[in-house]
């Protein structure tokens, strides 16, 4: 049997047996994830330095602390997130119990990119575990040092996790080098080798149709497109696919607010970049081509949960349903439509 098929079969059997559903099991997995971050902090710093040349400061702020904060938040709120969410009822359902139950999807796959290889692997993992799922975790094969740490160390802290695949750093190096052929290099150095630093590079005279303007760059390359004003900038943004994030920088708060009001993106920052990702109270995700779904904090739990619509009615109330059954009449229809109207306040039958 294919080893991957066997692993998937065992994971599905584990889920269907109900092992991942209890709050105690979910909390134990989250605590294990928190211990992994604490016990292996220096190892993670070293791996991030090898993969992305991140300093310990940047690694802590953008990767480790955010991941640890998500674990802490999920542990603090897990039982509240798991509770049935009771919803308002109309007159026809006043004697019933109406609620939303958060159920795990079952077996989920997390495929992480390489630009924030720890953060973008573990933050969705927190939500998937908190929601009670079994998880197949696929770290980025490009950030190979972080991939190695996750593959070798993380399984010791959690139930068993499907091992990563081969490395393709050379492919990404050649992709970035090809992008340097777009426009003209105004500042920065061209890449030297796949294992060396790539200086931040600014490209000018870039055409909208060139490859560097058609895909996520995931590298230290900044293409600049000149526009005649805010109107043209907004028009340029809106005729393209909606971005994952949009950052507007201006000394005028009105300009920033105008860009926010007249564009659409997964996230938005005015006079800053990235910092919206540090707030677990804000959802992170794209819109349209830039992504489907959202996560961080409770948003992660909700993304990895099926929100099941539930209505429970007592069998002794069947006589009240007679108004719905033939023979129909205009009066019965009017009464039923009134009873089905959404109401602005909670009603109680005395």
Automatic annotation (TrEMBL):
Keyword Lipid metabolism (UniProt): no
Cited SUPFAM superfamilies: ALDH-like
Protein's GO biological process: aldehyde metabolic process
Keywords for the protein's UniProt record, in alphabetical order: NAD, Oxidoreductase
Aldehyde dehydrogenase domain segment(s): 12-152, 165-306
Cellular component, GO annotation: cytoplasm
Keyword NAD: yes
Molecular function in Gene Ontology: 3-chloroallyl aldehyde dehydrogenase activity; aldehyde dehydrogenase (NAD+) activity
Family: Belongs to the aldehyde dehydrogenase family.
UniProt name for this protein: Aldehyde dehydrogenase 3 family member B1
Phylogenetic placement of the source organism: Eukaryota, Metazoa, Chordata, Craniata, Vertebrata
